[in-house]
Structure formats: C-alpha cells, structure tokens
C-alpha cells in the first residue's frame, strides 16, 4: 500500500457496523502502538481464537486464529457451542497475553470450564505452551495494574441448586514470572439486579478502577454494565445512569443483543468500545449470521462516567482521527494454490492437519479425506467459512468417485451437528453416482429423494449453496450449465435462536456460532475415501 493512501485524512470517515460480519462474538480489543487487534470466540472450530488487525478501527483484516493445534487445545469430542469461549487479549512487558476458556458443558447447572493462558512476542506467534489456570468460571481476563502486578478476573460459577449460577466476578493475582496464580481468589463484584454477570474487563483511568461486565445473557436482554472504585478490590459502584450500552426494549434497532464489550484508547486519547451484536432477519427473529462484532465511540469526561450516544448501538459512528489504512481485498476465489488453507477457512473440531486436509498431493486442489458422520464429534471432515451476509453463496467444483452409500462429498449450509443442509455426491444401490439432498432440523433428518440427480459418467461436478435471506437454495452443474434444485430450504434453522433448547428450565443446547458454508466429506465406513475440490468461490450480494 502506498504512503499516499496510508496518510489520507480521516475526518469524514465512519466506522460502519458490524466491523466483523458473521460469527465473531465476544470481542476483546487491544492497541499496541499504532496497531489494533480484535480477538473473538470460536467454540468448536479451529483455528481457535480468531484475531483481526486494524490501524484505523475502520478497515480490518483477519490474521487467522491463535489455537492452531492440539498442543494449545484439544477439541476432540467438543459439544456444539462448547470449546473456546470469550478470549481476552492484553499486552504487557513486550508480550501478548491471551487468556481463553475451554467450556466442556452447560447442563444441569454445570459448565466444567478450564482457563488457559498463552504468550507470544508477536501477535502471529509462536505462542507458548498453555498455562493451566483455574476452572472456577469462564470469561477469564487479565488486568495489568500500574504497579506491575497482574490479576486474573472471571465470572464465578456456582453449581449448587437454588443458587445464582453467576456468582459474581472474582479476582486473583497472577505471577507472570512464575506463570501461576498466587494467593486466594475473592469476589470483586456481584452485579446488578439484571443478573447473568460475566465477561469482565478491568481498566485504570482517571484515578479509578473501571470494571466493564456483560449482563442479561447474550441474547435480547444483553447489556454492558460499568462500575468503578478507587481501590482494586472495591467496593465498586455501578453507573447510576444505567448500562453503557444495550438494545433492550428497542426492537426497531438493526443491531440487537448489544453487550459483552471491551474498551480501547487511541493514540490521541479517543475511546471506543468493541462489543457483540446480532442482526435478526425480522424484529427479535433469527440471527442466522450469529453474533458479530461492532464498535461504538465513547465520550469520557474527566471524573465522569463513560457514555455512548443514546446508550444504544449505532450502525455508523465517527472514526478516530487516524490515517486511513485499507487492506487489500480478499479474492472471491480460492484456487487452493497455497501450501496451507487460506485464513478465511475454519475446520470443525480438529485442526487442518495433512492427514485429512491435503493441498499437496494434487496441485491447485483441496483434497479432503472423509471423516465421521454429521453427529461425530471426534473426526469430522468439514472445511467451512463464516456466512457474512444475508445474501451470499459458495461455489465449488468437485471430483469424487464414491464406492457406496457410506461415502459422501459435497457442499453444506451448516450450523451444528443437529442443524444443516447438505448437497452431496454418493453411490446409489443400483451403482449410479447420484446427487442427493439431505436436511437436518434439530436432528430430524429430511431426505429429498424426488430431487435426486443422476451424475453417472460426470467427472467434475459444480456445486453451489446460496443464502437468500431466510432461504437456502442449491445449484449444480454437470457440464451443461447451472441447474437449480427446485426447493427452498429454511435458512433460519441455521441460527443461534433455533439451536437453543431449554428443557424444564435447563439449557439442553445453546446456539453461539452462526451459520457456515462449507465443503463436507464423510467416509462412514472408514475405507479411505477422499474428494478433490478444484476451487471455492464465495460472494456476497
């Protein structure tokens, strides 16, 4: 990028929300010098803890994920919407510190969380072996005080029946030299009557300690709560004017679920809040795009409380007075020419290792070795990318020679093990190679035998999945041009709201991840089947 472009004045520029579209929840924002970083949750997907980079808070590029291998976290067997929750990114003494929670369950009042810490001198790594922290709660975050001490905060989980499961925000000292927690934990803040107090971040500013928490749960009642104290251990007094940010009671707003925020100060002393939002397709309806990241401008008068205009999430806010810094646009088409998967791709429950993701055996092709069934949680073979717009598509060219009905390869619109649509090549009992369509709605599978297409004798098959608002459609090309399967499928089953399930007041399932478009290969007999994908083109409208 030329110096002329980099030095363009930004007086009239705006931040347009969401800045990270699609599944990018629980943002932790950090500035180091002139660079800004955003880390977000990834749950059951590798690479874990997705990180984005900006120099102006307007233009963002992905740096990929931090947790790239099982040395840092093993997600085999991870349940839907379990895994990596609410990472926290800080910088101190020349090192990046990343704290992340691995949440193993959320049934019957239990979470079984385990918190970890890794460090690196560069945001792109290499990252240290993980330090195992406590498992008393999730949403852990580090705070580095002015006196050189570091402190770990988290929500404090309480499993006991009849008690508040969100028992407050606890704090414990972390010894950076010894790489261990020291002393005893203590409760710092028990929250407001809104409840579900989580997602803590602590800051030192203007002679106060400022505690930012998420409250109300991560859906429609979400909010950002601010409390302050002159002393580290409190007492903390809540802002008398109410939450810093919320969408509660404003169903007309485009951005809903506003909460789980973290603050950043620019080089010139301006303040901004990165936070979670959702964009429902109808008022308080399905959020197929999942929970996304937005940024709001914060006014912070001397000795006063931080304020966001109207206390609600704005679609567009004034950008900081920084030089514009756009990044090169991501190509629409991945020709799979690189030695590793592109940064836009994620893999389900296992890292993209050469034993099943092969970019070398056949140049300019992605070879995916088949894995488990849709409900398998140890070794599925799904390479996907986030759905970032209501109207978008993924197109690919597939070469696959299935032996029997246990071998399937194709394209999917995917949410989790229970909710997906899949167009795939397989072998029929009569020996024909056929295209079939199968959907799963909360585990109830619906085949479409009337739409089966004979693909015998065709070496290369074009496949396309299309999100058209609340509808998913599939197209195919057997060499004579694109044909559409004559069925409109429900896209809203690929949403956080649809995936969530409460039974007798207890969460049997949550939905935290948003929809994906992906390349999916299944080898249910373990016979060594693989499929070659020549390219993949993602477009938004």
Automatic annotation (TrEMBL):
Belongs to the glycosyl hydrolase 43 family. The keyword Hydrolase applies. Gene3D superfamilies: 2.60.120.200, Glycosyl hydrolase domain, family 43. This is Glycoside hydrolase family 43 protein. InterPro entries: ConA-like_dom_sf, GH43_C2, Glyco_hydro_43, Glyco_hydro_beta-prop_sf, Glycosyl_Hydrlase_43. Residues 333-539 form the Beta-xylosidase C-terminal Concanavalin A-like domain. It comes from Micromonospora zamorensis. GO terms for molecular function: hydrolase activity. It comes from the Bacteria. Keywords: Glycosidase, Hydrolase.
